[in-house]
Automatic annotation (TrEMBL):
Organism: Medicago truncatula (Barrel medic)
Name of the protein: Uncharacterized protein
Amino acid sequence: MFRVRNDVTLFVLKDQLNQINCPLNHKNTGRMESVEYQRPSINSVGRVQLSHMKLKNDDDARTMFSIFGPYNTKGMIELDTLLVKSFEYIQKSLI
């Protein structure tokens, strides 16, 4: 688990994720290309459902942080990220 500052621009969020990635995978010099979030919502019977949300701009990043708070104050936000480098490059760096 890693902590990132909240209430930041999408550019700053990607930069934070890059800073986390570099020490973990120093052979991979790729930069974050996209960030995706599983947004929670409550359906008509009271169950929490997750909707896929790709962060495209600063408003999306702010929305992600503002939505997350009411659902979970102690847990973590799960983000899916995409690096610019190819899968083959990443696979070689793990060996």
